[in-house]
Design a protein that fits this description.
single chain, alpha+beta, YefM-like fold, three-stranded mixed beta sheet
């Protein structure tokens, strides 16, 4: 993930002006909060987190299908 300085905040800045963090999320889609000069938190819209979960589930199902096709003979032997 690329981090843009315009959408990053220190923990102190985020604590003191959380509304600015939320405005940044509304404008850019995310905000990154740094703690001890390292990215520690990401703030995104709730609907985006649901989309990420769905995408991850679809990737897992696709990978599972690939494994099933690749190892079909082994699965058939195990089923006996």
């Amino acid at each position: 993930m690329n981090i843009d300085k315009q959408n990053s905040f220190s923990v102190t800045d985020a604590e003191n002006n959380f509304s600015k963090v939320l405005q940044t999320v509304d404008r850019t889609g995310s905000a990154v909060i740094f703690k001890n000069n390292h990215p520690r938190y990401i703030v995104i819209e709730f609907s985006e987190s649901e989309a990420e979960t769905i995408a991850a589930d679809e990737e897992i199902f696709a990978f599972s299908k690939q494994l099933e096709e690749k190892n079909q003979i082994a699965y058939e032997e195990l089923a006996k």
